[in-house]
Specification:
Number of strands of chain B: 11
Order of helices and strands of chain A: EEEEEEEEEEE
Strand content of chain A: over 45%
Oligomer: heterodimer
Helix content of chain B: under 10%
Order of helices and strands of chain B: EEEEEEEEEEE
Shape of chain B: globular
Largest sheet of chain A: 6 strands, mixed
Number of helices of chain A: 0
Shape of chain A: globular
Chain lengths: ~110, ~120
């Protein structure tokens, strides 16, 4: 099956810093989504981004499907950005959506 | 409903007992997913429904795990003869389904502890 790799696995930032999280996938996909799991365990959908670039406030994401990667940018990080960021891809030929292992982000005040 | 509702939120059971976990998806969502998430790991795909049809159950670990969605709405994940290794967060997600519309919305999850 498809492999989803996220990097870095862990990230510590000072409040106000910017960061880039990466997601690589091993095969063609129907779509890609980014999620944030907050410290209370809730999984929140950030972006549905099979290709191109989207922005939502301080967050933006870019997917280059032909090169099989996606990037999530966090600008001017805040302590509330802490948690785990997951990338999930939908396999072609069906609707099975596979998650990566996540990037654990801690933003220090 | 307004969101994906899962129950129970917490379940503690003894090894060997059967458990049933319920998922009530967002009204009108035709696609429904079950995932299992161990501590410190990403969600692991278990099974997928399109309406009432279970279209992919390749992620169910063994035959003690089963799922149904008889009327294309509420779904139940059943684990028979539970084992300690079944302890995890079980998450349900729903979506409108279809190409370009498979945006997953997750419920709060059911945390299962098997003693």
């Amino acid at each position: 099956g498809i492999q989803v790799e996220q990097s870095p696995p862990d990230l510590i930032l000072q409040e106000g810093a910017n960061s880039t999280l990466r997601c690589n996938f091993s095969d063609s996909v129907n779509n890609l989504q980014w999620f944030h799991q907050n410290p209370w365990g809730q999984l929140i959908n950030l972006f549905y981004i099979p290709s191109g670039t989207k922005q939502n406030g301080r967050l933006s994401a870019t997917t280059v499907a032909t090169e099989r990667y996606s990037l999530l940018y966090i600008s001017s990080s805040q302590t509330t950005d802490s948690g785990v960021y997951f990338c999930a891809v939908e396999e072609t030929g069906g609707f099975k959506t596979i998650f990566g292992a996540g990037t654990r982000l801690f933003v220090k005040a | 409903g307004a969101g994906v509702s899962q129950s129970p939120r917490y379940k503690v059971t003894k090894r060997g007992q059967d458990v049933a976990l319920r998922c009530d998806p967002i009204s009108g969502h035709v696609s429904l997913y079950w995932y299992r998430q161990a501590l410190g790991q990403g969600p692991e795909f278990l099974t997928y429904f399109n309406y009432e049809a279970q279209q992919d159950k390749s992620g169910l670990p063994n035959d003690r795990f089963s799922a149904e969605r008889p009327e294309g709405s509420i779904s139940t994940l059943t684990i028979q003869r539970t084992e300690q290794r079944d302890s995890a967060m079980y998450r349900c997600a729903s979506s409108l389904g279809g190409t370009g519309a498979n945006v997953l919305t997750f419920g709060a999850g059911s945390r299962l502890t098997v003693l």
